[in-house]
């Protein structure tokens, strides 16, 4: 039955896994140039800019997680702020109440978020796209309320939140703590990106993508759809949780109102702007989330939200499939001309 | 003499297609197609699966991007919006029947007359459709998607007739119908042609049947017209039959 | 028991709010098969326009009607100007544009009318319906307006040419074009109607929650929940769903000890997800809309 709903959501499914890939040599050059830039920047810019760049990377990690779920597996989420919050609070609580070392809290946050994501993935299995969008959005809306609630306040500090101390650079490295956190985030981000790439390129990755593109065929091929979908939900939450954990020390503060649905929506916007189904696109998404709102504020303080919205619309006009889609199109054009 | 017959006598075509190219994205599906449909005549378009028959009908209705001339009654309709072409009197019975789900049989018929304003005439035409296809009359208040495949095909044809079309495009009208019903349907179609002078372009898998009712036939292969001629000649030609029509 | 009945009635009163906005949500869903995240902000903005007209001295009902007309036109314009160029873009990009509209309306309302709360008049009065009644005259009036709106919508879709064309365009756009329906305009019309219904909802809600740019945030979420519980394909279902959500929220707030009041949003939403698990198309939704 050719329903319009199906037709519309087909466009979600039709995001190809590797559509007209950027030629390898070019993408490698871009990658190396990006890395060189990423490593040198913190030595030439002010501490506040280093903080901003660190936030870019943190958002990029969370967007990467969202991408695994939405981009590659075709499951909606407008609620990843919840997992981000769990990661951030895990680190803050473990450090400030239980005296854990910061570095130890990252894997704990990752595991806890994986578990939460996996559990949330179970009911999500039964929900169709639009209902899943609503359910996750509800999760995002409920998160600050839950964090503020009385039963949890001995740990979460209620509305007040928790202050977190920044760790000093280890081994007497000749960098300040902002630079150190930047490089730490960069390192973790790169590892997570490589893991994501390998996962997507693996046999499991093909199953994950097959579930997105054609669940019926995937089932016929013997793919355990329920298991994969919940696992991907878990992995996606794990990425968001690591991002949250890092953000706790970078921002040095966690509070319920930092993790409202606004954050969830921001991550979603970052995903689309960067490019659904593109791993490097996550960085573009992160850049957008950190710098565009500031830019909008500079243009007009009172109307910052309206300016931001207008920029968002213009960006979508210019690149309806995100930055990655634009790059692919340009590459295709150039390739077509050189032939 | 009707206007159509006057034009026929003067040898003017109702539909004149020249150098028609059509595209699915960057893929070209039709290549420089030329054909004419004389007023009051049945023309059939034959070809193997994937030859481009459906694409031709879609191109005529502006449902896909095209290049080339499509003249209806001397007016170039190439590049116009589907809705505009329809309101000029081109009715299309699409592949897959295009049934509106969640809408009753009677409402489906009313939808066919969407571009008309003559309320009373519309109601009369609906009754006419029920006479033509009594099975639809029995099911007039039923949701259209609950009809059988064959009944939906009848509904699609009646919906197209509700436009009071000058030209009717039919994409495999016999698809999914029982042999007896097919025979009935083709009788109805040829009656519509003789009694009401409706011109038709019929795409059919069942070439023998189509050639029987058609005046003129075109054969297409991979998006190109490879042969055309009066239907009876094409039908008689042993070699064409064996090479293209497979019977 | 008396407390229970009292709370159910109070829940129905808040439910009326959700029912109203749920109706607007279903309206737009029928036209575009999306949940419009900006719906609440559009309704809020319309309400500010009405407030401004009343401030300028226009009588309530004149302002009401003029606001409806303006909102309808704005809804049509948004579709034609903002979404028309994007009709081939992926669905996720559309959602980003909803988010952009959300941001624009919220920010613009704050800029023009600032963020202090304003009171908005009720045409029915805010006194209790009768001595000691748990519902006010306004609650009852809101219920009545929602009901009338529902009937009008039913009549429109069932018995008018344009209503039929809109349904056809929604279920099968390609086929609709083939009978000469201007599908693009039908979608724009859907936007216009949704904006107008949203304006009605906003003007009815504002006397209860006060007017300010963020008034719709949680209401929209409850409205979504109501629409989804009822089934996105059924306007009547959406209204019933809105009432259910209101009652559930109220009962959770007063009967679940300790956390009930703090977490009533969470509890209401959890219940809704639970409903969806059991009935994935909502209580009254049809399964015609194929699986995605
Ligand atoms: N939406 C589309 N996108 C890309 N290519 C298409 C699309 N629809 C059809 N084609 C291609 O265009 C060519 C002609 O298809 P068309 O549907 O016109 O064939 P047909 O003659 O109607 O065949 P059949 O007898 O099977 O209905 C085919 O090669 C087909 O693969
Ligand atoms: Mg065909």
Automatic annotation (TrEMBL), chain A:
Organism: Roseibium aggregatum
InterPro entries per UniProt: ABC_transp_permease, LivM-like
Annotated Gene Ontology cellular component terms: plasma membrane
Localization terms from the record: Cell membrane
PANTHER family: HIGH-AFFINITY BRANCHED-CHAIN AMINO ACID TRANSPORT SYSTEM PERMEASE, HIGH-AFFINITY BRANCHED-CHAIN AMINO ACID TRANSPORT SYSTEM PERMEASE PROTEIN LIVM
CDD domains recorded: TM_PBP1_LivM_like
Keyword Membrane: yes
Name this protein carries in UniProt: Branched-chain amino acid ABC transporter permease
Membrane topology: Multi-pass membrane protein
From TrEMBL, chain B:
Family matches, as SMART domains: AAA
PROSITE patterns: ABC_TRANSPORTER_1, ABC_TRANSPORTER_2
Keywords assigned by UniProt, alphabetized: Amino-acid transport, ATP-binding, Nucleotide-binding, Transport
Domain ABC transporter span(s) in chain numbering: 15-247
Signal peptide coordinates: none
Swiss-Prot/TrEMBL GO biological process terms: L-amino acid transport
Family: Belongs to the ABC transporter superfamily.
Organism superkingdom: Bacteria
GO MF terms, alphabetically ordered: ATP binding; ATP hydrolysis activity; branched-chain amino acid transmembrane transporter activity
SUPFAM superfamilies (UniProt xref): P-loop containing nucleoside triphosphate hydrolases
Name under which the protein is recorded: ABC transporter ATP-binding protein
Automatic annotation (TrEMBL), chain C:
GO BP annotations, alphabetical order: amino acid transport
Entry GO terms, CC: plasma membrane
Transmembrane residue ranges: 6-28, 60-83, 95-115, 135-157, 183-209, 215-232, 239-259, 265-285
Cellular location(s): Cell membrane
InterPro entries named among the record's database cross-references: ABC_transp_permease, BCAA_transport_permease
Membrane-topology descriptor: Multi-pass membrane protein
Main location: membrane
Keywords from the named record: Amino-acid transport, Cell membrane, Membrane, Transmembrane, Transmembrane helix, Transport
Organism superkingdom: Bacteria
Pfam families linked: BPD_transp_2
GO function terms (MF aspect): transmembrane transporter activity
PANTHER family the record matches: ABC TRANSPORTER PERMEASE PROTEIN (PTHR11795:SF451), BRANCHED-CHAIN AMINO ACID TRANSPORT SYSTEM PERMEASE PROTEIN LIVH (PTHR11795)
Family that this chain belongs to: Belongs to the binding-protein-dependent transport system permease family. LivHM subfamily.
Name under which the protein is recorded: Branched-chain amino acid ABC transporter permease
Organism this protein belongs to: Roseibium aggregatum
């Amino acid at each position: 039955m050719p329903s319009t709903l199906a037709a519309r959501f087909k466009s979600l499914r039709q995001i190809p896994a590797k559509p007209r890939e950027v030629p390898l040599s070019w993408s490698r050059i871009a990658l190396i140039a990006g890395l060189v830039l990423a490593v040198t920047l913190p030595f030439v810019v002010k501490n506040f800019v280093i903080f901003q760049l660190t936030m870019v990377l943190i958002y990029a990690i969370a967007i990467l997680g969202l991408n695994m779920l939405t981009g590659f597996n075709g499951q909606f989420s407008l609620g990843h702020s919840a997992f981000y919050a769990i990661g951030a609070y895990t680190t803050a609580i473990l450090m400030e109440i239980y005296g854990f070392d910061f570095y130890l809290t990252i894997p704990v946050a990752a595991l806890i978020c994986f578990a939460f994501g996996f559990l949330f993935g179970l009911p999500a299995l039964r929900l169709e796209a639009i209902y899943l969008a609503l359910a996750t959005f509800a999760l995002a809306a409920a998160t600050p309320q839950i964090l503020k609630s009385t039963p949890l306040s001995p740990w979460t500090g209620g509305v007040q939140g928790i202050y977190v101390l920044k760790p000093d650079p280890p081994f007497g490295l000749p960098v300040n703590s902002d630079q150190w956190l930047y490089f730490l985030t960069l390192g973790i981000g790169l590892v997570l990106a490589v893991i994501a790439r390998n996962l997507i390129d693996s046999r499991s990755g093909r199953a994950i993508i097959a579930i997105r593109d054609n669940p019926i065929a995937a089932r016929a091929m013997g793919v355990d759809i329920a298991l994969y979908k919940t696992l991907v939900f878990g992995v996606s939450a794990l990425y968001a949780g690591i991002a949250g954990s890092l953000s706790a020390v970078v921002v040095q503060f966690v509070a319920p109102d930092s993790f409202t649905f606004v954050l969830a929506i921001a991550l979603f916007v970052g995903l689309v702007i960067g490019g659904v189904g593109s791993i490097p696109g996550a960085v573009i998404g992160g850049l957008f989330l950190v710098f565009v709102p500031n830019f909008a504020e500079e243009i007009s303080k009172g109307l910052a939200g309206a300016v931001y919205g207008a920029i968002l619309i213009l960006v979508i006009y210019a690149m309806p499939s995100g930055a990655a889609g634009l790059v692919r199109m340009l590459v295709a054009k150039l390739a077509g001309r050189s032939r | 003499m009707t206007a159509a017959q006057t034009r026929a006598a003067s040898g003017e075509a109702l539909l004149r297609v020249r150098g028609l190219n059509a595209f699915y994205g960057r893929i070209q599906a039709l290549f420089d197609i030329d054909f004419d449909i004389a007023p009051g005549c049945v023309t059939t378009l034959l070809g193997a699966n994937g030859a481009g028959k459906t694409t031709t009908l879609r191109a005529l209705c502006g449902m896909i991007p095209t290049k080339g001339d499509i003249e209806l009654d001397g007016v170039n309709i190439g590049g116009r919006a589907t809705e505009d072409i329809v309101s000029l009197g081109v009715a299309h019975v699409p592949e897959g029947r295009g049934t509106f789900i969640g809408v009753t049989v009677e409402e489906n018929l009313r939808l066919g007359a969407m571009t008309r304003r003559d309320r009373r005439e519309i109601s009369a035409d609906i009754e006419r459709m029920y006479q033509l296809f009594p099975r639809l009359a029995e099911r007039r208040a039923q949701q259209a998607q609950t009809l059988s495949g064959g009944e939906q095909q009848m509904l699609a044809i009646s919906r197209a007739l509700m436009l009071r079309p000058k030209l009717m495009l039919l994409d495999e009208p016999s698809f999914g119908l029982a042999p007896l019903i097919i025979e009935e349907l083709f009788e109805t179609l040829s009656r519509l042609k003789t009694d009401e002078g409706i011109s038709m372009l019929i795409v059919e898998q069942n070439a023998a049947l189509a050639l029987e009712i058609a005046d003129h036939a075109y054969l297409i292969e991979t998006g190109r017209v490879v042969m055309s001629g009066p239907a009876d000649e094409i039908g008689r030609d042993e070699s064409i039959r064996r090479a293209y029509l497979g019977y | 028991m008396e407390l229970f009945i009292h709370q159910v009635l109070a829940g129905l009163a808040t439910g009326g709010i959700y029912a109203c906005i749920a109706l607007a949500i279903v309206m737009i869903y029928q036209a575009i098969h999306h949940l419009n995240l900006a719906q609440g902000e559009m309704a809020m903005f319309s309400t500010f326009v009405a407030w401004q007209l009343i401030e300028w001295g226009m009588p309530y009902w004149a302002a009401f009607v003029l606001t409806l007309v303006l909102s309808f036109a704005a809804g049509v314009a948004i579709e034609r100007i903002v979404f028309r160029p994007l009709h081939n873009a992926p669905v996720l990009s559309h959602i980003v544009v909803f988010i952009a509209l959300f941001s624009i309306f919220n920010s613009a309302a704050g800029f023009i009318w600032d963020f202090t709360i304003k009171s908005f008049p009720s045409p029915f009065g805010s006194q209790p319906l009768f001595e000691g009644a748990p519902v006010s005259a306004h609650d009852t009036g809101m219920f009545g307006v929602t009901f009338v709106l529902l009937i009008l919508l039913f009549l429109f879709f069932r018995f008018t040419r344009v209503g039929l064309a809109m349904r056809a365009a929604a279920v099968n756009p390609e086929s609709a074009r083939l009978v000469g329906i201007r599908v693009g305009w039908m979608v724009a019309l859907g936007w216009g109607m949704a904006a107008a219904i949203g304006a009605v909802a906003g003007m009815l809600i504002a006397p209860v929650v006060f007017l300010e740019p963020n008034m719709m945030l949680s209401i929209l979420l409850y409205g979504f929940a109501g629409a989804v519980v009822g089934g996105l394909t059924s306007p009547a279902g959406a209204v019933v769903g809105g009432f259910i959500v209101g009652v559930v929220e109220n009962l959770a707030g007063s009967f679940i000890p300790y956390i009930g009041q703090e977490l009533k949003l969470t509890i209401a939403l959890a219940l809704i997800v639970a409903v969806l698990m059991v009935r994935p198309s909502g209580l009254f939704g049809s399964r015609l809309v194929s699986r995605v």
